[in-house]
Write a structure and sequence with these properties.
single chain; 372 residues; alpha+beta; eight-stranded mixed β-sheet; 11 helices
């Protein structure tokens, strides 16, 4: 079974970044090299030669991230320093799906490439515990599974967090000490522009003490490209379908939510391109599995994320499907009990870990989730 490397960092943003970069220096270097090789092929197939425009876009987005979240920017510079990699190169590689869209998505339709993730957001009414659950797969380039890690952050000034991400990257899927959980799925719409990439949005959202504050970060972020973002606590969850031109909200107040990699709102559907061939099948299967029970648990979510009923179009995606994407990590969040479960690789091929928090729980034994 695939195991999940874990590491704890402490201190100021810069210090945490340097610790992170030094610990995974070799892995980060290999990750950046793999990402750059992949994007050169990706751009070349679409008629774009050279990486100079890519790094120019990455530099502009890094400057946007500075104004959006100075602490997160400082932490990124620390990671770059610790790993010995130019900060623009590292930022570009880490946020590749957004930065490459600045080069490709303002123009012609793309060659279809099957990448994406599947998320499930459960209201209290359909769980055995009577409290909300959230989770998702993270599916992208197969080689990225070699770089998946869990990073535990103990900042001098701020909330303790766990994130499952790729070596050298900031928050991808995570939970903080208040039981606020975040995640994302990729969307592709024309109209990408210089702005804040998705990892910076998620990193800043995870630093917030309430669902409302984290939701506001996502709603108002000047994003570079299109993504869905979800934010959960033990009361429920919200999801934003964000593009540079729009922000659309869904909530588990109306029932369980599933999400794959296609837009659901007309303004974004009109700009959509390069749909994953599996996206509608994965979302439909997740919706059916959520509707099949009113007693969901972390175990039933693990089974949902391991589902293979649709073969190569399934929620759980294997390298042998040869679809261009594999499930590289899975997380399940139980904010009420501050349980953050994670595995590297598909849900039934990775070793599951319960990633522990050190911050004391509230007196009632629940995560310190204040008013929303």
């Amino acid at each position: 079974m695939l195991d999940l490397p874990q590491f704890t960092v402490r201190g100021t943003p810069e210090a945490m970044g340097r610790q992170y970069g030094r610990r995974f220096r070799d892995l980060i270097g290999a990750f950046v090299a793999d990402r750059m090789a992949a994007v050169e092929t990706y751009l070349g197939e679409r008629g774009h030669k050279g990486t100079e425009p890519l790094f120019a876009a990455g530099k502009a987005c890094l400057e946007a991230a500075l104004g959006f979240d100075p602490a997160g920017h400082a932490e990124h510079l620390g990671i770059a320093e610790g790993s010995g990699i130019d900060p623009v190169v590292l930022f570009t590689a880490a946020n590749m799906t957004d930065v490459r869209d600045l080069i490709t998505l303002p123009g012609e339709p793309l060659v279809v490439e099957d990448e994406g993730c599947t998320a499930a957001l459960l209201p209290p009414a359909i769980t055995a515990s009577g409290t909300a659950l959230q989770g998702q797969t993270w599916d992208l380039n197969g080689p990225d599974v070699d770089y998946v890690i869990a990073l535990h952050r103990l900042p001098d000034d701020g909330l303790e967090t766990w994130t499952v991400t790729c070596a050298g990257c900031q928050t991808l899927m995570g939970m903080n000490a208040h039981g606020i959980a975040v995640g994302t799925t990729n969307l592709k719409t024309r109209g990408a522009q210089v702005g804040v990439p998705y990892l910076s949005v998620l990193h800043h959202a995870l630093a917030q003490p309430t669902l409302a504050a984290a939701s506001a970060v996502v709603e108002h972020a000047p994003v570079a490209g299109a993504h869905s973002y979800w934010i959960g606590d033990y009361h429920g969850a919200v999801e934003w379908e964000r593009a540079p031109q729009s922000a659309f909200l869904r909530s588990t107040a109306t029932g369980p939510l599933a999400r794959a990699n296609h837009c659901l709102f007309a303004a974004n559907i009109a700009r959509e391109t390069d749909l994953s061939p599996s996206t509608h099948a994965r979302m439909a299967r997740a919706e059916a599995l959520l509707a099949a029970s009113s007693q969901h648990t972390a175990a039933s979510l693990k089974a949902l994320f391991a589902d293979r009923e649709d073969g190569p179009l399934s929620i759980s995606r294997f390298a042998e499907d040869q679809s261009g994407a594999t499930t590289n990590a899975v997380v399940i969040c139980n904010p009420a009990d501050r349980e953050f479960w994670a595995c590297r690789g598909p849900a039934d091929r990775g070793k599951w870990h319960l990633l522990p928090f050190t911050t004391p729980l509230a007196p009632d034994g629940r995560a310190a989730c204040p008013a929303r």
